[in-house]
Amino acid sequence: MEQFEIKPLFDLHIAGYDLSYTNSALFMTFAVIASALLFWSATRNRTMVPSRWQSIAEVLYEFNATMVKDNIGKQGLKYLPFVFTLFLFVLLGNVLGLMPYGFTITSHIVVTATLAVAIWVGATVIGFSRHGFHYFSLLLPKGTPPAVAPFLVLIETMSYFIRPVSLSLRLFANMMAGHVLLKVLAGFIISLGLLFGWIPLIAVFGITLLEIMVALIQAYVFALLTCIYLNDAVNLH
Amino acid sequence: MPQFDPSSFPSQIFWLVVSFIALYLVVSRLAVPRVAEVLEQRHRLVQDDIDRAASFKAETDQAIAAYEQAMADARAQAQEQIRIVTNEAKAIAEKRTAEVTKAVNDQTAQAEARIAKARQDALDGLMQVAADNAKAVVAKLANLTPDDAAVQSAVAGALKETR
């Protein structure tokens, strides 16, 4: 599992913590720089008929804006920068990891868990600050028969607390599993040699395409679930 | 697995927070405002064009309505004039017909009067001739000279019977 190794590039120790700049931090930096470059260059000469790069920027923007509007409503647009950032960060984290010699920042549970917990805590804080004590009504769906209400509240409470876990595990597991699978299959190419090595080679080719798709879909799923949690916090169902 | 080695956690979390905030600044200060602006401008441009097209259409409709109104007015005016001219012509024709009719009637009446007078004259002449004849016949046959007045009344009676 050498591809998941965290290697320090520059040592940095602050207050007893090892905050070294690592290969993981390097790829986070790449993600930031790539986004900044894309949006800076794509929107430098804003034209009514967009250039190709401007189209990409517009498509990304519209995609996120539509997702936020559809899930949270017009008032949710103030969370658009956050959701957009999240989407770009996860997307680039996933995709840059598929490049040769790349490192997948989202294949580390601590990264996805930090994001997920931050989203969950944030959504909960927004929910309580907007609705106060009433936010607990989220745990009891409308039209529940009184007989099953305690049972349902228990389930809803559990599902609410499981949200950060499922959110972080989904992304982490998807990214790690894909990379492990590619690694194992690629190992077969060498061990089967010239005679049969082409069979896993074709498999690796196909799975690489699949992984690109998974990278895109997981970024979308992550951002979409964030929207759904924010919708619960903003609109209470 | 390196994922479960807690020694790298502080560094990963730290740089995650730093880079996420950096990316958030890029997105919120650069990407979203600029793209939203250009999309807004495009939307406004398209909306302006649509509005302009709508106002042109309204103008066109107005022009068509004005044209149709003018046509209707002109048609009404033409009909009115035709009516007036027709009435005048009819009045003149009636007047002339009345004049001609009156002239014809007058002439007819005069002619009838003349005819009646001529007839009366002819009848009077005939009675004289008949009386003279009767006197002559009586004188020849009976060798009498009848009284003029008696002959006259006898002839007039005979004429009355034949009428």
Question: How would you characterize this protein structure?
Answer:
- The complex is a heterodimer of chains A (237) and B (163).
- Chain A has one domain.
- Helices cover 70% and strands 4% of the residues of chain A.
- Chain A has helices spanning 23-42, 52-72, 80-96, 109-131, 149-196, 198-235, and strands at residues 8-10, 13-14, 17-18, 21-22.
- The mean pLDDT of chain A is 90.
- Chain B is mainly α and 163 residues long.
- Chain B has one domain.
- Chain B is rod-shaped and about 195 Å long.
- Chain B starts with 8 loop residues before the first helix and ends with a helix.
- The relative contact order of chain B is 0.03.
- The interface between A and B is large, with 49 and 37 residues.
Count of individual domains of chain B: 1
Q: Which strands sit side by side, in order, in the main sheet of chain A?
A: 1-4
Binned, the helix content of chain A reads over 70%
Report, as a whole number of angstroms, the end-to-end distance of chain B.
161 Å
Structural class of chain B: mainly alpha
The major β-sheet of chain B equals:
none
Beta-strand percentage range of chain B: under 5%
Low-confidence sequence ranges of chain B: none
Which quaternary structure do these chains form? heterodimer
Q: Count all strands of chain A and give the number.
A: 4
Strand content of chain A: under 5%
List its traits:
heterodimer, A: mainly alpha, two-stranded antiparallel ribbon, 6 helices, globular, B: 163 residues, mainly alpha, 91% helix, 0% strand
